[in-house]
């Protein structure tokens, strides 16, 4: 019986893993002004620029990376202490550093989505949204997206 209770407790905590990180990233995102958004979009870009794939295209100078990272830290620190303290406390209490990493990734994704909206024409130039096959593929994508969100 004790093992069953422990397993249920573990599974219930796993089912909600990341919920506080999502709340924190959403709070930060919702409180961004245009300057904050610019700074954090640059941070997301520089962070991706550190990857091997990005370095094959361009290398961002170390001093530029440091300047952008420092500005982003100031911006995030200000936002979470002034606007999102409750959400930060929940992440710290329940999800620890993994939650902070997830919140950062979630925020970067939201910023990237904002920047990329409407800029996909070169990749999908002939996408016919009225075609039934395309509609089926899009519906399957929505189903998979929902499935993976439930898995998080």
The gross shape turns out to be: globular
Cα radius of gyration in angstroms: 19 Å
Low-confidence stretches: 1-15
User: How much beta, percentage-wise?
Assistant: under 5%
Sheet having the most strands: none
**SSE string, helices as H and strands as E:** HHHHHHHH
Characterise the protein shown here.
Residues 1-15 have low confidence and may be disordered. Helix 3 (34-49) packs across helix 7. The two termini are 27 Å apart. The protein has a domain at 17-117. It has helices at 2-15, 19-30, 34-49, 52-55, 62-82, 85-94, 96-116, 132-151. It is mainly α. The chain is built from 8 helices and no strands.
Quick recap of the structure?
With 152 residues, the protein is an all-alpha fold.
Layout of helices and strands:
Blueprint: H1 2-15, H2 19-30, H3 34-49, H4 52-55, H5 62-82, H6 85-94, H7 96-116, H8 132-151
Helix pairs in contact: 2-6, 2-7, 3-5, 3-7, 6-7
């Amino acid at each position: 019986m004790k093992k069953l209770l422990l397993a249920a407790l573990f599974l219930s905590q796993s089912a909600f893993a990341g919920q506080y990180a999502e709340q924190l990233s959403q709070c930060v995102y919702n409180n961004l002004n245009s300057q904050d958004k610019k700074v954090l979009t640059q941070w997301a870009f520089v962070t991706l620029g550190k990857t091997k794939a990005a370095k094959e295209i361009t290398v961002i100078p170390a001093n530029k990376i440091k300047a952008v990272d420092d500005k982003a830290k100031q911006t995030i620190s200000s936002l979470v202490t002034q606007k999102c303290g409750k959400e930060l406390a929940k992440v710290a209490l329940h999800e620890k550093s993994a939650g902070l990493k997830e919140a950062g990734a979630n925020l970067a994704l939201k910023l990237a989505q904002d920047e990329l909206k409407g800029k996909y024409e070169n990749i999908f130039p002939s996408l016919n949204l009225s075609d039934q096959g395309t509609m089926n593929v899009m519906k399957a994508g929505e189903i998979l997206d929902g499935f993976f969100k439930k898995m998080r």
